[in-house]
């Protein structure tokens, strides 16, 4: 490769990194606005939160559905990436599991509106649901296996089984302020402990 080719390759790397960072900022701003105001919030509110113009959002996400899907996938990815990081940073795999489940509850409760908005497009929703399962079930399974291997929980629980239980406990949490899903999930997770 000649010098000009190396310079072009070097310039493309930081530019792609900046583009990814900018997109991440947009997605995080959109997620915050969606949680606070719902998925029908004005795009100008998202742009203001991200510190960009409305045109920038439409350049990245031509339709609201594109933006909602991207936010949902971004949040799934963040939850998936948190599992191994928590496992690496905690002495106790059970504590890592408990903290990951806490993040999963946040995801379920705050992203319910995103999933609801996408259910009108069954094919798109099915693809996102498959993405959700493909990314998160193995992470939950890894955390469960690590805690069982350490003897902190009883063995024999699967990631999908636990995630379904947690999901069922979160139903209605976004519409009834008297219901404390996090408290109920904490009881479920405590029940995994080996006595």
UniProtKB/TrEMBL annotation:
Species: Streptomyces anandii
- Key words of the record: DNA-binding, Transcription, Transcription regulation
Question: Which top-level group of life is the source organism from?
Answer: Bacteria
Q: Which PROSITE patterns match?
A: HTH_TETR_2 (PS50977)
Binding region for DNA: 42-61
* Coiled coil segments of this chain: none
HTH tetR-type domain ranges (all copies): 20-79
The record's section on InterPro entries has: Homeodomain-like_sf, HTH-type_TetR-like_transc_reg, HTH_TetR, Tet_transcr_reg_TetR-rel_C_sf, TetR_SbtR-like_C
Q: What is this protein called?
A: TetR/AcrR family transcriptional regulator
Q: Which SUPFAM superfamilies match?
A: Homeodomain-like, Tetracyclin repressor-like, C-terminal domain
């Amino acid at each position: 490769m000649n010098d000009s080719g190396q310079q072009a390759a070097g310039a493309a790397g930081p530019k792609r990194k900046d583009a990814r960072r900018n997109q991440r900022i947009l997605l995080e701003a959109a997620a915050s606005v969606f949680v606070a105001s719902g998925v029908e919030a004005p795009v100008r509110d998202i742009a203001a939160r991200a510190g960009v113009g409305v045109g920038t959002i439409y350049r990245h996400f031509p339709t609201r559905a594109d933006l909602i899907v991207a936010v949902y996938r971004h949040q799934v990815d963040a939850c998936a990436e948190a599992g191994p990081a928590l496992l690496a940073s905690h002495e106790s795999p059970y504590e890592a599991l408990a903290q990951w489940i806490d993040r999963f509850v946040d995801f379920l409760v705050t992203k319910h509106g995103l999933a609801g908005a996408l259910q009108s497009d069954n094919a798109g929703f099915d693809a996102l649901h498959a993405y959700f399962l493909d990314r998160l079930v193995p992470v939950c399974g890894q955390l469960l296996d690590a805690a069982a291997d350490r003897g902190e929980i009883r063995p024999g629980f699967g990631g999908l089984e636990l995630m379904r239980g947690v999901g069922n406990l979160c139903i209605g949490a976004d519409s009834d302020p008297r219901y404390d899903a996090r408290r109920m999930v904490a009881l479920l997770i405590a029940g995994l402990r080996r006595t």
